[in-house]
Amino acid sequence: MKQIVYKIATVVDWRQAVTDGFYAGSADDVRDGFIHLSSKSQLSGTLEKHFSGKTDLVLVAFEEQKLDPHLKWEASRGGALFPHYYGRLAVASASWERKLEMGPSGSHIIQDEWFVC
User: Fold this and answer.
1) Domain 4-106, CATH class in plain words
2) Domain boundaries defined on the chain
3) Mean pLDDT, to the nearest integer, of 74-97?
4) Structure confidence by residue, pLDDT tens digits, 16-58
5) How far lies 20's CA from each of 31, 63, 89, 114, in Å?
6) What PANTHER family does this protein's entry cite (predicted)?
7) Which DSSP string corresponds to 32-89?
8) Is the pTM of this model over 0.70?
9) Which of 53, 82, 88, 102 could form a disulfide with 76 if both were Cys (CB 3.0 to 4.6 A apart)?
């Protein structure tokens, strides 16, 4: 089974990445020296903590093996291991992208069918 990791980015930043051929990271990524990614189980928490109330977001999926050797799982929030990518993410290595919509409660909607292979 393929392991997938995800990047949440602004639509504007991801469109620029598509134009450039690579994603160099958000301001937070640049500050921290790596691109913050999440596993599927970490997505809701990441959205709540870092993207609450923000619109115009996209979720981008990457196969873990395509990111080797620059992908590292490192302790972060509460000691949990999070995927961190050291370098520029090639847009061509993305498996898919989906626009994140806001639900009536103000939370982002993650569609279960996005994760069905």
Assistant:
1) alpha beta
2) 4-106
3) 92
4) 999 999 999 999 999 999 999 999 999 988 998 889 888 899 9
5) 20, 20, 11, 26
6) BLR1139 PROTEIN, DUF952 DOMAIN-CONTAINING PROTEIN
7) HTSEE-B-GGGHHHHHHHH-TT--SEEEEEEEGGGGTTSEEEEE-GGG-EEEEE-SPE
8) yes
9) 82
